[in-house]
Amino acid sequence: MIVYLSTLAVLVSIAALVGLGLNFQWGVAGLVNFGVVGFVALGAYATALTVSSLGWVLAMGLAAVVSAAASTILAFLSVRLEEDYLAIVTIGFGEIINILLLNEDWLTGGALGIANIPRPLASVIPAAQYDNFLPLFAIGLVAATFLVLEMLVRSPLGRALRAVRDDPTVASALGKPVLVLRIKAFAIGGAVMGVAGSLHAFYLTYIDPSQFTSIITAYAFMAVILGGRGSNLGLLIGSCTIISLIEATRFLKDALNIVDGVQLFALRLGLVGVGIILLLLLRPQGLFPEPRKHVRDFFEDSRESN
Amino acid sequence: MNSDAPIPALSIRDLRAGYPGGGDIVRGITLDQAPESILAVIGPNGSGKSSFVKTLAGLLRTREGSIDVTGKRVSDLSPARRVMSGLAYVPQEANVFRSLTIKENLKLATEFLRGRTGVGSTQEAQVMALFPELGQRHKALAGNLSGGQRQMLAFACALLANPEVLLLDEPTAGLSPKFVGETMEAVVRVRESGVTVLLVEQNVAAAMRIADEVMVLVAGAKRLLTRPSDISNFDLADLFFGKVQ
Amino acid sequence: MLGQVIVNGLVTGLLLALPSLALTIVFGILKFPNFAVGSTLTFGAYGTWVANHLMGMPLIAAAVVGSLVTAGMAILSDKLIFERLRDSGSITLLVASLGLSLVLENICRFSFGNATRDFDIDIARPLRWHGLRINHEQMTTAITVIICVVVVQILLHASPLGRAMRATADNPALAAVRGIERNTISHITWALAAVLLTISGVLAGMDRAIDPLLGWSYQIPVFAAAILGGLGSPIGAVVGALVIGVAEELSTLVLPTNDRQIVSFAVILVLLLVRTQGLFGARAVRK
Lengths: 306, 245, 287
Prior knowledge:
The complex is a heterotrimer of chains A (306), B (245) and C (287). Chain A is mainly alpha-helical and 306 residues long. Chain A contains twelve helices and no strands. In chain A, helix 10 runs antiparallel to helix 11 (261-282). Chain B has one domain: P-loop containing nucleotide triphosphate hydrolases (Rossmann fold), CATH 3.40.50. In chain B, 44% of the residues are buried. In chain B, 33% of the residues lie in helices and 23% in strands. In chain B, helix 3 runs parallel beside helix 5. Chain C is an all-alpha fold. Chain C is 71% helix and 2% strand. In chain C, strands 1-2 form a two-stranded antiparallel ribbon. In chain C, strand 1 (127-129) and strand 2 (132-134) form a beta hairpin. The chains are: A mainly alpha (306), B alpha/beta (245), C mainly alpha (287). Chains A and C meet through helix 3, helix 7, helix 9 and helix 11 of A and helix 4, helix 9 and helix 11 of C.
């Protein structure tokens, strides 16, 4: 049971990190990203390929950097576009990453993936204790990321992003360079997703392309919608809820032996779809909706009377 | 009001409306408009005149209150059903289908109004007689017409529905003075053909010249409803620019 | 041989034309990109397969049944989901269509598993023409798609319903005040898209086998084709599809076949940088 709970803690942490990244991009900055899984995969592979030579700290840092770089390029190309088009471009990106991971086997090992990924501090902590260490490591990572993101949200950058999200025309009239802000936001979110990918790689010690499907994007969106766009705390609660629900279906298989593996898989994915739809219909503002603010509130220096 | 008075063409009680997620923009308006009259709705920028007319047309949901057209309750009907009940609306901008031809715009004005009394070839002939220019350039895309021509087309399309009440949102916006005059004359001719007209106007002088009654709207509420001859410029200035009451 | 590649490209393009047409019509009239096109295609293919293989109907009759079932599903999802979210912005609608996509795909997976299925049809010998090989399925695809495109064009431009649909696409509020019920047009649009996607599903199922991911593999090229042609323009969707089809086939001369989707994606990126309105559509740059 303890082992199961610690596994759950790691899974929740990975999901929370992905969600925090998306929350920053979509919840705070208003940029929709349907290619979430691509950035997570980039982080995982960047870590897996370099951890032996660079050590885990640098490998994680590299994951963040690679994902941030990819985010920056993608954002630079498409952040001027209407939301619909940004969504289309990002979903395409997710798919392309998947294809590249499968095909460029000289680098990625193709469908076989990369195995035997060393874990952080594995040489220092004895194997027996490691299973207790990893969840703490994961939770620590989430806590650190949460704090950093909360600081960013409250910083001038965060205020500017939220102003731009709520009313881009007014915000740009007030003089903030909108495009640069958006690219920064996308990159920060992407970096967090990359870190999630590293954690995933460390946890499983073996990665292959089949682990990175668009269902991860769907889970992330559910968590963000459930938690209330923009609220980091809500996001954490949303992620916990989602993962717990998904894991609960695991017991379904043991309890009701009537469905086979494929059907169970289909049932889970189908329920995620139903969940997304129900959330949108019943509680689109999530559990912790952000109170409506006016652009004025973000810029104390602009005393426009209205 | 004596008991022989005809049913008002438009009867509004305590109307409240606003955009989803926001507060009330239309704040409790009550009015009766006599049949075959012209009512001009004027007020400062942001007073909710456009939103008021959109609520009458059904594009903004009625939150409280009621709207009756010649005695028929329309406030819970969709915009399409309100047209069937005798209400027609000409929006301020985007009032024609730009990617469709003139002919198609005109066809659409009546195609989905089967069962509306008076819609038919006689009505069409009468309306087209008011706008002879439109009969000539059938295949032109409505988007390629000038502002004034689009206005005419929008007008014609609304009239083809044989409305009892015609709602006009700033019909002279962006038109040259000559066209302003022609448009107002067209409004009078429409009234003379038996239609009740409610028009929202920024051009106060032009509106007051043809209106039977004027309603001043400030911050979503009715501040004055009277005949044009009973208002002075000073009253208007006070109302528009905020003598707090 | 170049000629053969172009023929294959045109046929691939024709296979993309109907789903692109469906996507562009939904975008034009309902104002959001429908991410459930791929899974609706899959759903339609399976529906037809059930009628064909399990109930023994000839393929055309089965396709009719499949279309009716899929259209019914589409109207139901409009009534239950999209109608209620109409005023919530296109991203909400988009995410909802993502949810629907998961549901549809997994209904198919749950019911029929991951194993591939085939239609019960007779195999005919390919035609040979000036050294080019055109097989029976390719001919059927070409003829079916051309007929569908012509029918849709006639519907849109020569019928009152088509006028109403184009009017709703042009200006939904104005259409409402001209007597056109928005919900009715919405249902009809979804039904039309469903029929087009079912037919595509049948053609795709003839081209390769049917499995739960059938439609998903078309998703990116279909979006590329619709954007290339200009989202909202039916002619554009067809032209875009042909171009993407030929481009993908041509790319197999230089790239490994698995990278075909990258071609489509590259097209999307380049277009959105350079000419967001595609060939026939409206601009897409955010303010």
